[in-house]
Amino acid sequence: MGGSLESPVYSFMSDPRPQTKVVVTGIGVVHALGNSVDDFWNGIIAGKSGIRKIECMDASAYSCQIGAEVVNFDAKACFNNAKDVNRNDRYVHYAVSAGKQAVADAKLDMSQEDPYKVGVLIGSGIGGLETVQEQAWKLKESGPRKVSPFMIPSLIANMASGVMAIEIKAKGPNFAVVSACSTATHALGEAAHMIMRGDADVMIAGGSEGAITHVGYAGFCNMKAMSTGFNDEPERASRPFDAGRDGFVMGDGAGVLVLESEEHAKARGAKIICELSGYAATCDAYHITSPDPEGEGLAYALNRAMAMAKIEPESVDYINAHGTSTPYNDKFETLAIKKVFGEHAYKMPISSTKSMTGHLLGAAGGIEAAICAKVIETGIIPPTINYETPDPDCDLDYVPNVARTGQKVDIAMSNNLGFGGHNATIIFERHK
């Protein structure tokens, strides 16, 4: 570390105030690689890509025609009342499914909980984009009387949290975070703070996205942000840190964790997967879509998260990088990691699981948090697949192509960066 990043950040490592420990007790995932944690994780450690030719729409008019779309998903199984399927957008379906998986994994019995101490904070970077698209077409083709009365509650980005709470009768803190691709990591970090403040004993937190739509692809393709060179080889398209990367590949789905105070989890005899010990949020204040080329905002977030966790850089065993497979992100994220970790940056395994999952936008941090928890639980470090040609600007250990075993991971870090200059970093530790 050097310059102005060091002293103001580490000054509060000696903060004498007691800190409530926040632990992870449940995980839920919906993704192209599997609609359960086990199926998803098995795909990740096998180095399997979930990216395919898009089937949910005709993508032939777009420069990018591939994505990681959710398949074999039963929306009716998500809800207590099957009629609610048609009243909610696809991103809400994914959120509720992943949320209920996490609750089941945590063995959280709401009949035994104070409902006002159980909250939900599931964010979305874009919200109900499919609803916006469908209802705009109806408005144009058939006039205003044909627009659904469910349009507004279907599209707003807070509805994943609201509907999840209704489904399980959770009456505690409930709202949504919207910070583009940093959304889910911000949601998890802010949920942890709610528990530390005593606002809740339990928070169900993460992110969900359903943006594989015509309007989503038209917008991102015209920004020239998406991969265009691998439409005939979808599984090779997402290649973070590789010299041949040419843009991100979109994915849909959700990742949700159950967070609890350690005291509450122990009192109910819950299985503790790991601890959420550090979190930070910063802004580049540089550009609406490009990261800061000096990596200062992310570097400060990395330092700040470690300060909250009260750990030194050399203690971090693994980083799940944002690693979008875009030219700028991968280069500048690597720079920020090297600024903060120094020589340790070259010794520490780093992977971008977006090489397999695609980029889930506001849900990315949710599934990547789930991956970090599984890394600590299993000791298996997932690969960055499609890493074929080294980039001189990206010269760290990206765990190329094959998962790594036999390396104990006590501390894992996850980064996410979003349009608007948002940076979010979260740290998970083996529970002691």
TrEMBL record:
One of its GO terms (biological process) is fatty acid biosynthetic process. It is found in: Cell inner membrane. Pathway: Lipid metabolism; fatty acid biosynthesis. Keywords: Acyltransferase, Cell inner membrane, Cell membrane, Fatty acid biosynthesis, Fatty acid metabolism, Lipid biosynthesis, Lipid metabolism, Membrane, Nodulation, Transferase, Transmembrane, Transmembrane helix. PROSITE patterns: KS3_1, KS3_2. GO terms for cellular component: plasma membrane. CDD domains: KAS_I_II. Belongs to the thiolase-like superfamily. Beta-ketoacyl-ACP synthases family. This is 3-oxoacyl-[acyl-carrier-protein] synthase 2. It comes from Cerasicoccus arenae. The lineage of its organism: Bacteria, Pseudomonadati, Verrucomicrobiota, Opitutia, Puniceicoccales.
